[in-house]
Amino acid sequence: MPQLRDKIAVVTGGAQGLGQAISQRLAREGCQVVIADVNESGASSSADAIAQETGQRAIGMKVDVTQEAEVSALFDLAVREFSRVDVVIANAAILIAEPIIDADAEKWRAVMNVNLFGYFLTTKHACRIMKPQRAGSIININSKSGKKGSAANSAYAASKFGGLGHTQSVALEMAPFNVRCNAICPGNLLDSPLWTDPQRGLFVQYLRAGKVPGAKTIDDVRRTYVEQVPMKRGCTYDDVCNAVIFLASDVSSYVTGIALSVTGGQEMG
Question: Does residue 119 carry a catalytic annotation?
């Protein structure tokens, strides 16, 4: 049985990768989905594919999460089309890995702007809708790098640490209105395009940045990351989606303010 039948979900960064997988899973669990992404054609094609596969209504919309007018319009659209918003997945994020002494200041700022300021705008307008509803679940797709620092990756880790503080603060503020705010901290999605893209993937970025001492090849980098996981495999989209459905559904109605690690034992805090 679908666990989220007739719920209305908004997903940022939903045109590709993990965000697309989350959008698909939400629809399979019964949600109508609004997919927001700076990639307009990707958002539209993802929405069309989801509607065709699941029979659920899905809408794609171009949204830059760093622009308040666009984020506000996203939630206005969701309410206009569906009358309410039940689940919000703040997934939009970027990662630029550089050693601190070589870090480009504007790239560092861009990571903070998308990952932290964008998350703030998303939660602000989610709460604007959910507070009078007196119901809702906001889920921040965070990272294990939000719990432990990451060498040659200070912007990303800083944004994710900040995201957890924001999650807890919103959870406290919105608890009296039955609006929950939680975070999911995935491990390394080693088989996803985020890591495997030959030009911009993290295997390439980390090799170039010298993040793995002694690594000479991408295979060396991958082997190092697998060996860090007690379960000896990378995180998968399904692993993250299972956690999303738990936190979005009524079975977690007494859960708010947590940062749920999905890391195969690599991060247990």
Answer: no
Q: Single out the catalytic residue among 156, 206, 225, 237.
A: 156
**Confidence band, pLDDT 50/70/90 cuts, at residue 186:** very high
Which CATH fold topology does 8-188+236-262 show? Rossmann fold (3.40.50)
> Could you write out the three-class secondary structure of the chain?
CCCCCCCEEEEECCCCHHHHHHHHHHHHCCCEEEEEECCHHHHHHHHHHHHHHHCCCEEEEECCCCCHHHHHHHHHHHHHHHCCCCEEEECCCCCCCCCHHHCCHHHHHHHHHHHHHHHHHHHHHHHHHHHHHCCEEEEEECCHHHCCCCCCCHHHHHHHHHHHHHHHHHHHHHHHHCEEEEEEEECCCCCCHHHHCCCCCHHHHHHHHCCCCCCCCHHHHHHHHHHCCCCCCCCCHHHHHHHHHHHHCHHHCCCCCCEEEECCCCCCC
* pTM for the full predicted model: 0.96
Tens of pLDDT along 21-69? 999 999 999 999 999 999 999 999 999 999 999 999 999 999 999 999 9
- Domain ranges within the chain, ordered by starting residue: 8-188+236-262, 189-228
